[in-house]
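Action item from last meeting closed. Structure (287 res):
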């Protein structure tokens, strides 16, 4: 499927060279989907960051204002990967350089296809995505939505790219903010949970390196159990929980502290925040 897409011969430009751009670029390179020399990464002012990316991956890098234009014009695929607050200005700046055969792939939380069309024009094929940073190691989870202008071939390319760095789900654009709340922000919830587990392990007297090994393997093993056994988290939890045993005591204590409600509330808030961010960009465009 990958050779059919012709992706290996394409040029990919990351406009915005931060954490998410690096996670995707690193994943694509690591999975050998595309050679580093076919990837360019641009940012606004942080020259050290570009130098670091060039040294680390061998990607082409250049500072805003020099020969950025060439990379942007030559790219078959342009990833928009700046923070939402910078998006309207950054996208407006490149709109005059774009031609309608270039595929725009946005990873920007909250930013709608309609807003991007306002900034770029109606004919540009646009993909709105919500990936996550686990793409770095090929274990990402990405929500994908297409504008009408995206061709079947461009869809193949998009899905091949995101499949090479994890799994993806094509969703109606109205669900993209839900994807933010679930898997876009998701890795941070798990890290937050692990931080708490590590703290408690220390309080219980375990040395940091031993605590880390035990916590990481526990999280990894639990996720893998859900994936490989096909059993639900609830069923698997029951199997750990002996009547009147240690796990029951822990779960009762966590429930009393409102852990489940706190997680649900936090996820809904992430999704709501994505909508707020999108609305703020929309307002700034229409001002
Ligand atoms: N981090 C995550 O887990 C995820 C992030 N996202 C989305 O990815 C996007 C980027 O987030 P993240 O990677 O964390 O952000 P970072 O702050 O790490 O990176 C942002 C990058 O954008 C660059 N930039 C800002 N303005 C411009 C401009 N005008 N022209 C060119 N480059 C510019 C910055 O350059 P400089 O440093 O020089 O200013 C920087 O390289 C966000 O919109 C976010 O919603 C989506 C899913 C997950
Ligand atoms: O925190 C954020 O806004 C971005 C979007 C999803 C994950 N990180």
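Sequence:
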């Amino acid at each position: 499927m990958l050779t059919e897409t012709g992706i290996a011969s394409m040029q990919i430009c990351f406009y915005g060279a931060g954490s998410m751009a690096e996670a995707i670029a690193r994943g694509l390179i690591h999975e050998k989907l595309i050679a580093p020399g076919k990837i360019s990464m641009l940012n606004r002012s942080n020259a050290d960051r570009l130098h670091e990316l060039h040294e680390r991956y061998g990607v082409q890098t250049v500072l805003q204002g020099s020969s950025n234009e060439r990379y942007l014009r030559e790219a078959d695929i342009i990833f928009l990967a700046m923070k939402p607050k910078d998006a309207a200005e950054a996208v407006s700046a490149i709109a005059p350089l774009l031609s309608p055969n270039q595929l725009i792939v946005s990873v920007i939380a909250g930013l709608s296809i309609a807003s991007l069309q306002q900034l770029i024009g109606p004919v540009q094929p646009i993909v709105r995505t919500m990936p996550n940073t686990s793409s770095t190691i090929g274990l990402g989870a990405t929500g994908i939505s297409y504008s009408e202008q995206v061709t079947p071939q461009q869809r193949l390319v998009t899905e091949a790219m995101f499949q090479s760095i994890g799994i993806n789900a094509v969703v109606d654009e109205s669900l993209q903010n839900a994807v933010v709340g679930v898997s876009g922000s998701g890795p941070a919830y798990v890290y937050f949970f692990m931080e708490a587990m590590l703290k408690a392990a220390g309080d219980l007297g375990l040395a940091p390196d031993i605590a880390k090994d035990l916590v990481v393997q526990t999280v990894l093993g639990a996720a893998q159990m859900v994936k490989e056994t096909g059993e639900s988290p609830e069923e698997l939890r029951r199997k750990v929980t002996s009547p009147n045993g240690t796990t029951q005591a822990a779960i009762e204590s966590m429930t009393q502290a409102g852990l489940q409600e706190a997680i649900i509330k936090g996820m809904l808030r992430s999704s709501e925040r994505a909508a707020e961010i999108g609305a703020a960009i929309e307002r700034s465009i229409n001002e």
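Note appended to the action item: The longest strand covers residues 140-146.
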